[in-house]
Amino acid sequence: GESVGLHLPTLSVQEGDNSIINCAYSNSASDYFIWYKQESGKGPQFIIDIRSNMDKRQGQRVTVLLNKTVKHLSLQIAATQPGDSAVYFCAERPGGYNKLIFGAGTRLAVHP
Amino acid sequence: EAQVTQNPRYLITVTGKKLTVTCSQNMNHEYMSWYRQDPGLGLRQIYYSMNVEVTDKGDVPEGYKVSRKEKRNFPLILESPSPNQTSLYFCASSFADRVNTQYFGPGTRLTVL
Questions:
Q1: pLDDT computed for residue A3 by the predictor
Q2: Chain A contacts of B32, Cβ < 8 Å?
């Protein structure tokens, strides 16, 4: 399959633990912040987004936190499962633009 | 099945030989986009299109062309490929008011010798 990211930072967690993946962003004028998941050999898949005027948003087993003061975004995954093993990308959408700017990604490795 | 398809999935070519990577979606999406993915750099946007006959440059458009003559298709054209265009390419689509939620194709691995 197709995959990239041989030198990505890696987060290793035990199955059942909670995972926290962090991301620093640069553009204070971004309207949205988004998380994507890329499994080995596949294209990225949307997980969740958060508008810049919010500081927390919850989905199914995932929570995104936004700290605009320090330009920090995090994705929390509850009760991590082997199927969560993937590369996770944060992305930002600059205000007024119909484009996404992706970060370099973090690899999540879930161990039984 | 709702999907984004890309062809070819793998391509090895030589410098200067024009090539086209096709992208098609069956979800009636207005927005389509091309990205390249390189180790340590994440995904970088090449071009995007808000609708038929409307295209805009992304962050790394040099050396690439696109066209959007039909809503479902968004081909990526490399007129004169060079080795620095060796990469993994992804096509994506979404509704115009849901650009955050893009659906990605399976990727095309391009090697330019």
A1: 41
A2: none
